[in-house]
Specification:
122 residues, alpha+beta, NE0471 N-terminal domain-like, 6 strands, 27% strand, 3-stranded antiparallel sheet
Length: 122
């Protein structure tokens, strides 16, 4: 059963997507979480064993939120990633389980010797 959002709003600093659902549930989803958990094949692969750990996204920003029919939004990020289609159920899942997903991501980064921080240009 699909859940329906009543509001999707990007914060002024472009680092948080606020999503409110018709049942009153409301979530503030960080751009970092949305980027590293993108539903795109580029990030998720074609099976759970192919999922990519994306480092350096602590400061990523959302530059566009485009509706896709009546079922999803496409997010474009300032690192030029724009292939993920975020369905309402997936946004709800990220809202409900975002903290655990972010912690699993941080643990994965640490295990692989990677950082959340973006590489700095010299």
């Amino acid at each position: 059963m699909s859940v329906w959002p009543t509001e999707i709003r990007l914060s002024k600093d472009r680092r948080t997507l606020h999503v409110t659902f018709e049942d009153g549930a409301s979530y503030a989803l960080s751009a970092e979480l949305l980027r590293v958990e993108s539903p795109s094949a580029e990030v998720q692969g074609h099976s759970p064993t192919q999922k990519t750990t994306v480092p350096g996204k602590a400061e990523v920003e959302i530059i566009r939120v485009d509706p896709i029919g009546h079922y999803a939004v496409k997010l474009s990020f300032d690192d030029m990633h724009d292939t993920g289609i975020y369905g309402w159920d997936y946004l709800r899942e990220l809202g409900e389980h975002g903290e655990a997903k972010l912690q699993a991501y941080l643990d994965d980064l640490a295990a692989k010797g990677l950082s959340r921080e973006p590489a700095r240009r010299r």
